[in-house]
Amino acid sequence: MAGGDEVVNQIVADLAYMSSSDMTIDASRKRALEILHSLTDSEMVPVAEILAERDRTSADSAVFDVNGHLRDLSELLEAH
User: Fold this and answer.
1) What is the longest distance spanned by two Cα atoms in the chain?
2) Per-residue confidence of the chain (80 residues) as pLDDT tens digits?
3) Cα separation of 31 and 46, whole Å?
4) Kindly report the CA angle at 54 between 50 and 59, in degrees rounded to 5?
5) Pairing with 45, which of 17, 28, 62, 70 sits 20 to 30 Å away (CA)?
6) Crossing angle of helices 5-21/25-38, nearest 10°?
7) CA of 69: how far to CAs of 19, 21, 36, in Å?
8) What's the distance, CA 29 to chain centroid?
9) CA dist 64 to 19, 29, 39, 40, 49, Å?
10) What pTM does this model have?
């Protein structure tokens, strides 16, 4: 995953903790997945523009990165 092992491990640990301590997390997780799956490329353009400027990369590359990070997050939420 693009975030790196340390980031992924922390997210997995946080999701496990939230799941064990709060039963409402499942509804929140499902809602987050719905939102992630409904995002369109055009909604990612402003985010990608900021990243492209920050990282001095092309807008296309930044859109690709944003979509990759969102896909990674989606996979983590689906798995936990």
Assistant:
1) 42
2) 556 788 888 888 887 787 776 667 778 888 888 888 888 777 888 888 999 999 999 988 988 888 888 888 888 888 87
3) 23
4) 55
5) 28
6) 140
7) 22, 26, 11
8) 12
9) 30, 24, 14, 12, 12
10) 0.68
